[in-house]
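Listing S7. Sequence submitted for prediction.
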Amino acid sequence: MKPQTPPSELSLALDTIRPAIVRAALFSMIISFMALAPTVYMLEVYDRVVNSRSGMTLAMLTLMIVGAYAVMEILEKVRGALLRAAGVALDEKLSKRVYDAMFQGFLKRQVGGSMQVLNDLRLIREFLPNPALLAVMEAPVALLALALIFAINPLLGWSAVVGALAQLGVAWMTEKATRKPLMEANRSAVGAQQMAESSLRNAHVMESMGMLDAVHARWNKRQQEFLAYQAQASEGAGLWTAMSKLVQQVMGSLLLGLGAWLLLGNALNGGAGMMIIGSVLGGRVLAPLAQLVSQWSAVVNVRAAWERLEGLLAQMPAKPKNMSLPAPKGVLTVESLMAGAPGHPVAIVRGVQFGLNPGEVLAVVGPSASGKTTLARLLVGLWPAMSGKVRLDGADIHTWDKAELGPYLGYLPQGVELLEGTLAENIARFGDVDMVQVEAAARLVGLHDLIMALPQGYNSPIGRDGAVLSGGQRQRVGLARALYGKPVFVVLDEPNSSLDEAGDAALANAIASLKQLGTTFVVMTHRTSVLGVADKMLLMRDGAQQAFGPRDEVLAALQQARQPAVAAAPAVA
């Protein structure tokens, strides 16, 4: 027996709003029934009012039809409110999970790590009140209308079935004509959007080196692809939507004429009025299918969004809730570490192993492309290891709940990224701003006086990506953020690459100050200014560990290894 596939996260989320959708479907069926009210009014006017010449009957019938219109309007408002509330509830259920999956996908360099997934969630949410879904909700009434047509006369019923089958054929042809171009249009639109976002992030580089025209040409190529595919899909959809309307109009007249022919042969149950009712009921049978055809592009788009979201959530499963761990003290253990970029089989770091006690400072040195930045990401748990472990106080740092570990850990990446907000918010990591801690971190890195010289001080906005700050200032703010709250373990990747001499001295003093409080540091660096506060030193080359030990011993070994090489070098004339 084939094992049953468990429901997806999206399906489970939809289950939570199913009661609202069921109520909306019930209202849709009532509205669809009441849509027959104008036909009933017309027949009653011809039958009762014209024959009886009664003004009171006309007034009562008119009052009833106006009341029916009012009830229909109220029901439509209630149905819309139900579906909008269901969309909000679905968004609340999924938004954090989707955002986390997108974030993890970006960290792991997976396809899902883009802003498109948030647009996909929006598409699904906004599809709930879409006319295509409302047409599906009205389908039971269409089936009941078909049964009533059969009751009037089987020939009318089979004619309505033929019309329904013709509409289904039109829907199938619409799917065939639009699915591929719409999917390609979406893919091209996403590519164009990503390229535009990338160009804006690098606007200063493009402007300074005259790259704008070339980049615009590449963007325009993708944009033209998007427009071409969209036009192709629109042409196909327009053709078959027109065909759907034609089928609906022809069937309405055909049923009316066929009803008249049956009436002439005394084969129409219910009398002359049934030929009009049969034609109207035939329209109700075909209306949901016609509505689906006219909205088919929305159906294709939401289906593609659903598939992408399901794929992302399956690829990035929710992290299990781990048992809470005690606050770390800063004991770092690296065990035979081998790792590379996520999704790539080539190892960048190979066989690295060392240990640090609380309050020790390790300087990691080596030429470019020696694996220092990859090691930094592994040490803070951003990337998983192929083999080996990075442990903080004995616990695997990669699986440690980052929300729980975060306050005890500081990290300054090689490329400092700041978020739009104030200086205080950035230093406080966008949590609750403790101004005492914020000022302490700023003083540690020599940033306090600079901030106080600004008109708004710590409340000064820094702009998008810290645009109003210089490179050195951004690096100091990033450093203050890493040291905020006096964490017990800090990893700094090239922290002084944009610092001047005063910034170098402030960095060394900050490390020395927190070292006295028991903070463990790992500093990737090309510059010697940090070596003065380092206790241990790790030399890396081509991703492998070349030497590790007390700073002075490693420096002495390097000096000793360098002397034979210098002696063996040929003399220069």
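Caption to Listing S7: primary sequence and predicted structure tokens for the chain studied. The first strand starts at residue 332 and ends at 339. Residues 1-130 form one domain.
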